[in-house]
Amino acid sequence: MDACTLGDLLDVVGGTSVRLHTAPAGLTAPVTEVVLHDAHAPLPHVPGALLLAVGVRAAAAGPLARAAAEAGMTGLVVRGPDGPVAEAEAYGVALLSVAEDTAWHRAHLLLASATGARPVPSTAGHGDLFALADAIATATGGATAVEDPRRRILAYSTVPGQPVDEDRRQGILGLQVPADVENTDQYRELFAAAGPVRLPALRDGALPRLAVAVRAGGETLGSVWVVDAGTLARDAEETLVQGASTAAVLLLRARAAQELARHQSGDLLRRVLDGTADPAASAVRLGVEGPVRVAAFAPDTAGLPDAGQTGLRLLDVVRLQCEARYGRHACVLLDGVVYALLPAPGARHRRLAEDIVARAGQALRVPVRAGLGEVVAGLAEAAGSRADADLVLRVLGPSLPVATVDEVRPRVTLLRLAEVLAEHGELTKGTWRRVLAHDEEHGTDHARTLVCWFDAGCDMAGAAKSLAVHPNTCRYRLKQVRQQLGIDLDDPDERLVLWLQLRVLASLGPGPADG
User: Fold this and answer.
1) Buried b (16+ CB within 10 A) or exposed e, 45-58
2) pLDDT greater than 60 at residue 511
3) Which residue has the higher pLDDT, 413 or 61?
């Protein structure tokens, strides 16, 4: 792999995630790794490294810029915009920053991923694990498999001539270890052990196994299994421990690459949704062809102290459900709303949204709503579908938590009309204000009477039913409107404008949760 440069790094994570303030040595300066600053330990000499200014305010990081330069480092990363630009330029180190609210462990993961890994599809990225499985199999003398914590087989050896049994054949065919009681007991024993474990055959014709858990810190990343036909090398256990250590590095690297790919696709989706990305190039990078629809998911975070964390958890739920149906998938969290790009055909989009809303509501313990925009021809029109989805969210309520734009088209249209009318002063003038002022001053109900009459097609009986009054009462109120306010209710144009203004500007009509 070619050495990563500062320019390469910014191509991957620059823009909204990482900002470059100065680069005295240019963008071709190498970036070898990412180092966390420890105020209680000497700064290591790591040429080409980026130093994260953990525990140091951006404005006070000038001495750290000098220390980074003396340690041969390429750059300093601070949190917030007011970093020591002058000092960085004076000492010849690049100065970068992340957002003020970015957790340092997230910044480290992002930058380390961009430096030491390349984005890979979720279906790839385990090639090194296959090579490792072959190496372990050769050294130990037994067929080897590498699994994740869910017993999915990530890689397996292909060394010819090594004995295998039916369990191994079936596991490789399905890339999944069967979840029976005997297997579960063995996995429990394996993950409770500190080192390699020898496990007996589970059934007639099967072979024993030598296995070890793969861990990084306190986290279990998976396991390595070797078929034991009685011919394993004497140092097989030591070899397996070393192999597990290497597997941990590879699994962490693969995870980091996947996280980076997710970050990149999310950032690209953000630009697609605001209309600033190139549609053709974005379609290739996102793996999207043909018609699409934007779905928007929003939690009810009113009064919640951890609204930001709730949004991130909702993002995880939406991403997981979309990836389960569509594979590699782009989702992004913007201003508390999670957006997902759903490929056509769209017949099952509503069912997916309902499932996500139900699952997310249970997991987050707050109501979640989902609005689905129009199905559009491609990414060039995705911004319009996103605008539709945003409008749908605004008209949803407890009795209607999920809807497509077509299902609520009248309400969405009235909402857009309200915005258009509010933007133009001349459209907000007229008799509707006199009607409301009269009601407020005299305690009458002329505005509601007019709206119900208009909604009923100027039918007196229908209006009276909506108002729960006698038709004569409704007739009397309309007479008062004509006499007291001088409104010509026989003029169809007057009726239409007055109805729109009362329904849209005065919001006199069915609420968002009504049928």
Assistant:
1) ebebbbbbbbebeb
2) no
3) 61
